[in-house]
Automatic annotation (TrEMBL):
This is Glycosyl transferase. InterPro entries: Nucleotide-diphossugar_trans. Gene3D superfamilies: Spore Coat Polysaccharide Biosynthesis Protein SpsA, Chain A.
Amino acid sequence: MRRLIGTAGLTARAADRDDTRGLKWYFASNQQRLDSGHGLNLRLAVLSARRNTRLRPHLITTGFRNDLTEWMEAHGVTVIPGRQPMAETIRAGEAAGRYHTRYLGHWLRCEVPMLEEEDPFVLYTDFDVVFLRDVPLPSRPPRYIACAPEFRPDGWHYFNSGAMVMNVANMRRSFPEFLRSAKHQIDTLDGRILNDQYAYNNFYAGRWNRLDLRYNWKPYWGDPSEARILHFHGPKLHNVRAMYTQPLPWEQPYWRTLASLVASFPDGYRAAFEAVFAATEGTDLPERAWIREIADRLATQPPPVPPEIVDLGFFNNDYGKLGFDARWPLDERIHYAIRRWRLRRRQNA
């Protein structure tokens, strides 16, 4: 039987607050297993944060204990059960065929300003990040949130919500209106074309600040040696390993998308793997051996990806010029862009 996380963790408040310890860091997850691929990402994030930063880690979950939450607490993470204010709307949307409850965990990040009771600014990241060095508060804190671009480092028209510095008070004041807006969109739109990142972009349009790219650096941007936060946006470490170690269903758009990034930017992924290996030196991460191995293979052997599936049409285009709606989830935007790009190539052949 699963055990509920106790209500003592419902707010992020600590009697032993020490500002010299750095920013409070929030991340979120539904019930991942410790030994799953995403469990590895979560452990990497925590171990690198504990080793390389002064961040104070806080995990928001959907509310049940398992081996992962126990590991988190053993490694100094405050585990908080999410209040899930979107849960009723999302479940109703699923019953009406407009949405999926598997997206419930994506919305946990929205709760940060309601859970935080002490600090004026906090950091939120997705769980697929590795901290390479300390993450101080930016010299110009945001009015609401500070974020970096999605795919292109110069694409400031649409931000990626995988790393956000939040102004807690202003985000809390705007939260009821943000929640009404998000619920209305799920209630009235086809839920396939709405995710939490779009909801943030839509609601805070014209009100968000630019975040230093080093706070949300992607492997496909190149050398991460100056980065503070390395974000495995798209292919995760276990995805790249799978490309070298097992047969993959290349006919699936999901794998074609991931492979297109790794095959097109192998030097960036090699440098990213090397950075992860260095960032976890001395930790109790058993996967370090194969992380080193894949870094070496990326340096000497191109990713074994069929060249005919590699297509970066999605990468270099603005969303508004592709004919799809920016409200679509990331994977649907990518897959649509790839299909359109191929169609145009066939028509021009």
